[in-house]
């Protein structure tokens, strides 16, 4: 599961292309297709446990946190996307859109890992 979050080739298969690396301070851009290029910076790493990065720096200025929790014979992946300015129309729209979009993105991880 960690590789799905940190390997650029695998990451591109389930979400977005970009030079993601699990290195604090690493800056990368996610190609979100019709939603544009989203600049990101890794702010916290606990190998095989947590990856946190700023997302859409300069526009939304939100934070995406991925947590991996061992569970039985597998791993539970937890996503937290925080920092939306709900007092701003763009922030509200992004919060609503991403809230609707994340479930479909997350459903693509297992098939990408199985390839």
From TrEMBL:
Family as reported in the entry's similarity comment: Belongs to the AHA1 family.
SUPFAM superfamilies: Bet v1-like (SSF55961)
Signal peptide as annotated in the record: none
Source lineage: Bacteria, Bacillati, Actinomycetota, Actinomycetes, Kitasatosporales
CDD domains: SRPBCC_CalC_Aha1-like
Source organism of this protein record: Kitasatospora aureofaciens (Streptomyces aureofaciens)
Protein name according to UniProt: Activator of Hsp90 ATPase homologue 1/2-like C-terminal domain-containing protein
Domain Activator of Hsp90 ATPase homologue 1/2-like C-terminal: 2-113
